[in-house]
Amino acid sequence: MKIVGIHTWLVRPRWCFVEVLTDEGISGWGEAVIEGKAATVKACVEEMAEYITGLNPLHIEDIWNLLYRGAFYRGGPVLMSAIAGIDQALWDIKGKYHGVPAYELMGGPCRHSMKVYSWIGGDRPAEVGKAARERKEAGFTAVKMNATEELQYIDSYKKVDAVLERVASIREQTDKYFGIAIDFHGRVHKPMAKVLAKKLEEFDPMFLEEPVLCEQMEDFKEIAACCSIPIATGERLYSRWDYKRLFKAGGISIIQPDLSHAGGLTEVKKVASMAEAYDVALAPHCPLGPIALSACLQVDAVCYNAVIQEQSIGIHYNVGKSVLDYVHNRDDFTFDNGYVKLPQKPGLGVVVNRELVVEENGAPHHWKNPVWHHQDGSVAEW
Predict the structure, then answer these.
(1) Which pLDDT value is given to residue 314?
(2) Does the keyword Metal-binding apply (predicted)?
(3) Which of 26, 33, 8, 23 is nearest to 312 (CA)?
């Protein structure tokens, strides 16, 4: 079997799908995207296509190393996201070729289902208590929310109190044991992160995400020492070499590699094994589409330290189209009491609505993230 071509498709709300074609009629799907830079990653996938056309798609490890090590410049969000989308598609092909889910070719599952959480609140979180209650009534046992709006290095305690009030409203509307993940989204700098981490302890959050950016990973240990809440990060790290520095820095309880940013299944499985050696949990980042989610579930299936899975059904970013619009097997993405069963279909387990993908690509999206400013006019972290 040989790779004979690669198609790339820009689809709403902000995704890029990759389709790898073979001479035996088996095709595989992946998601290769940096949110806000989808066209850039799309171009990178198309550049990489010439390196792998004619190769055996079942030789995934060899192709991964060719795409990574064959380039003088390597790593980073664009290159690793392009590799990730191709890697996902190759695992999809390999599973279809052998007639089994990809996880069966990665050692077999160590669980039958995966716990998931749901997003609430939006970019500028509001009415999170009501939204959390609705998610609980829908069967979820955990949610995630953005913690705050923009924060200066040193900012008003009025903003701190607003965060505490929102989290308190979730506890009031759910119960003591309902899971609450609080995403600082890299909007917070160390001085205020330490304040928030300590004050949020009373609500027993599930974890604090990106209390500071990984550019400041040496600060995680200091922030973790301020509270007993698990610290999570990793969506903006792209390889095992990035994670090596994070594990050495310490202070992290949960890693969140993104299967569409960090080199795909091949790389994230290795990163997860590294984390297990440090007694660190895995909770893959996935505010993306159905292919990315299916890829995450394949890795969750084979990683003992996987604890919970992000998914973007109902997330505030999904405008115009959403996750299940692009799949024919919607029932396989049913959540039951906060869990989803592992995919059972061959490959990644997602049956893509190719006709809709082609239609959407006819008018490509141009999604960009907001650019925020502080009251003084300086640029704020979004």
Answers:
(1) 83
(2) yes
(3) 33
Q: Is 59 a catalytic residue?
A: no
**Same domain, yes or no: 189 and 250:** yes
Cα angle for residues 37, 120, 110 (degrees, 5° grid): 80
H or E stretch at 95: helix 77-98
Q: Is residue 96 part of a domain?
A: yes
d(CA 335, CA 161): 34
- Which of 185, 189, 261, 365 does the annotation list as catalytic? 185
Burial 298-310 (b: 16+ CB within 10 A, else e): bbbbbbebbbbbb
Q: Give 337: exposed, middle or buried? Use CB within 10 Å, 0-12, 13-18, 19+.
A: exposed
Q: Are residues 185 and 281 in the same domain?
A: yes
Provide the CATH number for the domain around residue 136.
Answer: 3.20.20.120
Domain end call among 38, 67, 101: 101
Q: How many other C-beta atoms are found inside a 10 Å radius of the C-beta of residue 378? A: 9
pLDDT of residue 317: 87
46: domain CATH number is 3.30.390.10
Task: Say if 356 falls within a structural domain.
Answer: no
Residues 6 or more apart in contact with residue 17 via CB below 8 angstroms: 8, 9, 11, 29, 30, 31, 85, 289, 291, 326, 352, 357
Classify 85 as helix, strand or coil. Answer: helix
Identified catalytic residue from 7, 189, 261, 285:
285
Phi-psi label, residue 22: left if phi above 0, alpha if psi -120 to 50, beta otherwise? beta
For residue 269, what pLDDT is reported?
98
Say whether both 281 and 334 belong to one domain: yes
Low-confidence ranges of the chain (pLDDT < 70): none
Active site residue 185: yes
